[in-house]
């Protein structure tokens, strides 16, 4: 960090945001995505039902959980291969195959 010469100067940066140009983001292996790439994706079931947009991501010990919101409705989607079928960054969409009971209604 240019200009950050002392521990006191470093402490002033705690809680700040670090940003880099898109051109400097290291590529990930196929099938892996940065969280910022997933936020805002529109989520649909394999049958075409719209569930909402990814608004938050909670990392857990075994897998991430995507928070999908559509107005007041919130759906928690586990980021596991059995559920996540398509992540289309260019199309800004995600397609899921909900496991039984995941959606809490007949849509799952």
Chain-wise SSE layout:
Layout: H1 7-11, H2 35-38, E1 42-45, E2 50-59, E3 64-70, E4 73-78, E5 84-88, E6 93-96
Parallel strand pairs: 1-6
Antiparallel strand pairs: 1-2, 2-3, 3-4, 5-6
Shape: elongated
Distance between the termini: 49 Å
- The helix-strand sequence is HHEEEEEE
Strand order of the largest sheet: 4-3-2-1-6-5
Based on the model shown, name its key terms.
6 strands; 33% strand; elongated
Structure write-up:
This protein is 8% helix and 33% strand. The chain has helices at residues 7-11, 35-38, and strands at 42-45, 50-59, 64-70, 73-78, 84-88, 93-96. The protein has a 6-stranded mixed β-sheet, with no helix packed on it. The longest helix is centred in the first third of the chain and has 5 residues, at 7-11.
Question: What's a quick, concise take on this entry?
Answer:
The chain has helices at residues 7-11, 35-38; strands at residues 42-45, 50-59, 64-70, 73-78, 84-88, 93-96. The chain is mainly beta and 108 residues long.
